[in-house]
């Protein structure tokens, strides 16, 4: 009778063992790392759900893989987080997404421990007070398809090594304090050609001609101190859709530029561009168009979308005329 009771209890335990295992998905190594990260940030209220009484796969800001239960995403967004990015972030070996965004009290430099995250596809460290250089060691994250370091206090020059990240769809380095030139290597992407966002920095010099060999979809180089010619980004066979080169010192003859049919947004305001607007612009479907504060002359081509934009899109040129500006005389 005693043996029968023993075997019955054992059978019931084994029967429910899979259920118990499924209810405790969290990998203990990952859990311990997250507790260290929480402690380094001063145990903030934003991470209040990070408790031992709750499976870490059910914590806010965390996502686990459905099959392995390893943590694949850490997203901490818009909260009162203070301190620096802890090295322990690099101890989540299966992490694919790391987002630390809109954390204004996050300071210090980007740690090299991030390079241990070999599965990382998205790195978004933006709208913080991170400082120091854009690290060249980010080029070791070869699976990255999205890099966002915008709205920080990053300084120094853009590391040319970033061009070895051939899976990138977009690079956001805008709204920092970057100096120097745009790397020649940015014309050598051999996989995807990423959207480039480099606006609101202190970049100088001319655009490397190598960039003209690639087919970009979106480029924003606005509000820098760049000079020279940008016509290499345009042409019949190009596929660029959005181009913002405003508030620089670019200087070239716009009359000689052939704009592709793909172009829907063009901002050239506050440069030193001369010549007359080519008639072919009337055949493009613009959603945004601004050539104000340049040195252009001649009549604004009539037709298409060019007359749908306010006259401020054409203000302060040397002698542009015609609708929506006053008629030519």
Please describe what this structure looks like.
The protein is an alpha/beta fold and 329 residues long. 11% of the residues lie in helices and 24% in strands. The strands form five sheets. It has an eleven-stranded mixed β-sheet with strand order 1-2-4-6-8-10-12-14-16-18-20, with no helix packed on it. Strands 11-13-15-17 form a four-stranded parallel β-sheet, with no helix packed on it. It has a three-stranded parallel β-sheet with strand order 19-21-22, with no helix packed on it. 33% of the residues are buried.
Describe, in short, the structure shown.
The protein has about 325 residues and is α/β, with parallel strands linked by helices. Helices cover about 10% and strands about 25% of the residues. The termini are far apart.
